[in-house]
Amino acid sequence: MGSPLLPAEAATATVVRVDARQCEILRAGESEVRAVQMRGRLWEKSSDDKSPVAVGDQVRLELDEDGEAIAEVLPRRNAFARRAAGEDVRRQVLATNVDQVVLVACFGTPPFSSITTDRILATASFADIPTTLVLNKIDRSKPRKIEEIAGTYQKLDMQVLLTSAETGDGCEALTEALVGKVSVFYGLSGVGKSSLLNRVEDGLGIRTREVSESLKSGRHTTTYARLYRLAAGGAVIDTPGARTFRPWGIPPHELRLHYKELREIGPGCRFPACLHRDEPDCAVLAAAERGEITASRMRSYHELLAELQAGIEN
To answer: Has residue 2 been placed in a domain?
Structure first.
């Protein structure tokens, strides 16, 4: 006889943290987080995923003599993922069932990286998840540089928020952008994700650490993804900082569709499948030469395109 289901009102839950084969879950209407195991059969299914369960998943629970366990992951409406770190060629799902990706970049240390920013934006677009770009540490940069970088992404009709976790500037607007939504916070180590979340809601108490001035990068403070409910409504998923970001699953020939300006100008090219690299009569390259496309965006596109093509060849 199979394991009995829990009572109907408690049979499903939201995953708030994943640690190896153990998860922390939160049932609807409850405030107490519970630790449960994953059923072994979840690992038996063929998959490219590093783990069969991710933060944000809705799961079905079973109860037997050993206690509660996750028996099934319910269908996801979306998944924000990257290629796993190191030599691992599997997919690492960072969060699921989210309403937006809040991409946090910053000025100062670590320095703003258009290449990393554009990779994450393309990945969110591929997953069909709206994005809000947060430019943190505005107190550490000159107004002209802030205006230049913010303007690049505002031209793409993207919501761009300027914040300082140090002074509190812009944090009220960030709070408003989070209310009523499930948001995943993502960015390089040291950009200030955890500090911003502590500003957004008192009492979260997420650990923070200063960045390394010698390495010009952040130290990992958050070591696992964790979902936090917000008192004003909605939830945020704080994710571990990364030093690099490698997209997962974007076909090289589709990458151009995830750069808004390339997608809009591309129909003017001679060839319908133009990759905007070195093809004749390319409307995108012509627009870039006229300065209608920001040079940093074209560089990031070409670099990522080459990486995606190399990944398929290998």
So the answer is: no
* Range in 65-74, 94-103, 245-254 with the lowest mean pLDDT: 65-74
Cβ-proximal residues to 250 (8 Å cutoff; 6+ apart), any chain: 122, 123, 126, 258, 308
pLDDT tens for 249-300 read: 999 999 999 999 999 999 999 999 999 999 999 999 999 999 999 999 999 9
87 and 173 in a single domain? The answer is yes
Give the predicted TM-score (pTM) of the model: 0.89
174 occurs within a structural domain: yes
Q: Which of 238, 260, 289 is the last residue of a domain?
A: 238
Which residue carries 């969110």 as its tokens?
124
CATH of the domain at 268: 1.10.40.50
* 32, 41, 83, 238, 242 from 52: Cα distances, Å: 24, 10, 15, 19, 21
Instruction: Give, as one character, the DSSP assignment of residue 216.
Output: T
Confirm whether 243 is domain-assigned. Answer: no
